[in-house]
Amino acid sequence: MKTYAIAAIPGDGIGSEVIAAGVEALTALARRQGGFQFRFDHFDWGGEYYKKHGRMMPENGRDLIRQHDAILFGSAGHPEIPDHITLWGLRLAICQPFDQYANVRPTRVLPGITSPLRHVNGDELDWVIVRENSEGEYAGVGGRVHQGSPLEAATDVSMFTRAGVERIMRFAFKLAQSRPRKKLTVVTKSNAQRHAMVMWDEIAVEIAAEFKDVTWDKMLVDAMTMRMVMKPETVDTVVATNLHADILSDLAAALAGSLGIAPTANLNPERTYPSMFEPIHGSAFDIMGKGIANPVGTFWSAVMMLEHRSSASPRTRNSTPRTSVAPRAPPTSPRRWSTRSRGRTGRAFSAPPLPLPAGLLRHMFQA
Which end of the chain, N or C, is more open, meaning fewer C-beta atoms within 10 Å of its C-beta? Predict the structure, then answer.
């Protein structure tokens, strides 16, 4: 029987609760389908590890997970530790060295959720946002001098390389090509950022020539926020820089009704390193331990993990978790999918109808 090794990193706050629910669901799925199984290796990295050891993960942490088939991640963020330490010490310490340069965030209005947008009932909002995940505004280049003095200065330098922009543009065009509408919006800010963003625009034009069947347009990031709110039906696939897509994807999740159930895939498309899958939500210490953390974002991220393992091409259409096994309360309700429901979660995934995308299991783990 084929065994797939998954590195489970709960991280901080409710991360341990939602990852436990995700592990339970995936274990039940493998048991129901037969022919394969998961081996979950758990790593207690995060804020509590930092308080004991002065770092978010051990020095050889990446070596411990490098050979795994995938990484299932919970959240990073601890109220007693500065955010830049928790982010750069764990999540980015995995994403960047493992060259997970394509951050993919699908957004849809799930059954039972009401979008805050008046005229959106579901189909009008079906997006995928592709975020450059290895350089740009989060390249980590910069520094501070003369700290504490009146002459103190600090820089954070946005670094864009032709290789980095080309590969994320090509990934985004290919993804748009695979979706029914074959439509891509390239987000930019080249009116004000006249060097890197102009190069970004020029490379988009070059890559577009390889995808004659994809209709594409360009939009300034500030105008894009208005378009997402006012004309959501005109948006399909979006590609943006690390910072721009970070912000736009959170807006997208909110417009779909809940930031708490949105998924993320941090992909190394070449599969040189394992890819990492995580819910968008944070560590939410205010609800930790109450049994009301919603694991739907983890379930959806697990679906993306299975799809990545099953095919060399990105697929996000139909990658939404089915809800036919859930109670009638909306997915954002604590009594629908909550970590208090563990045990019932495994039974739900073990019995038909299976809450995974139609056709997914036919292709599972063929790559």
Answer: N
The model's pLDDT over 35-88, given as tens digits with 9 standing for 90+, comes to: 899 999 999 999 999 999 999 999 999 999 999 999 999 999 999 999 999 999
Angle separating helix axes 296-310 and 15-33, nearest 10 degrees? 50
Domain 1-104+262-367 has CATH 3.40.718.10: yes
In whole angstroms, give the CA distance from residue 77 to residue 62: 19
* Topology adopted by domain 115-256: Isopropylmalate Dehydrogenase (3.40.718)
- Phi/psi zone of residue 146: left (φ > 0), alpha (ψ -120 to 50 degrees), beta? left
User: What span, in angstroms and rounded, lies between the C-alpha atoms of 364 and 29?
Assistant: 12
CA neighbor of 12 nearest in space, from 127, 91, 65? 91
Strand (E) positions, 274-316?
Answer: 275-279
Q: Which residues pair with 36 in a beta bridge?
A: 2
Q: Which helix (H) or strand (E) holds 182?
A: none
Summarize pLDDT for 121-164 with one digit per residue, the tens: 878 899 999 999 999 999 999 999 999 999 999 999 999 999 99
Cβ distance 14 to 287 under 8 Å? Answer: yes
Q: What are the tens digits of pLDDT across the range 237-256?
A: 999 999 999 999 999 999 99
Going by C-beta distance under 8 Å and a sequence separation of 6 or more, which residues neighbour residue 54?
none
Interaxial angle between packed helices 242-255 and 221-230, expressed in degrees from 0 to 180 and rounded to the nearest 10: 10
The mean per-residue pLDDT over the stretch 82-101 comes to 96
pTM over 0.85: yes
Residues of the chain with CATH 3.40.718.10: 1-104+262-367, 115-256
Q: Which of 288, 292, 272, 287 is nearest to 337 (CA)?
A: 292
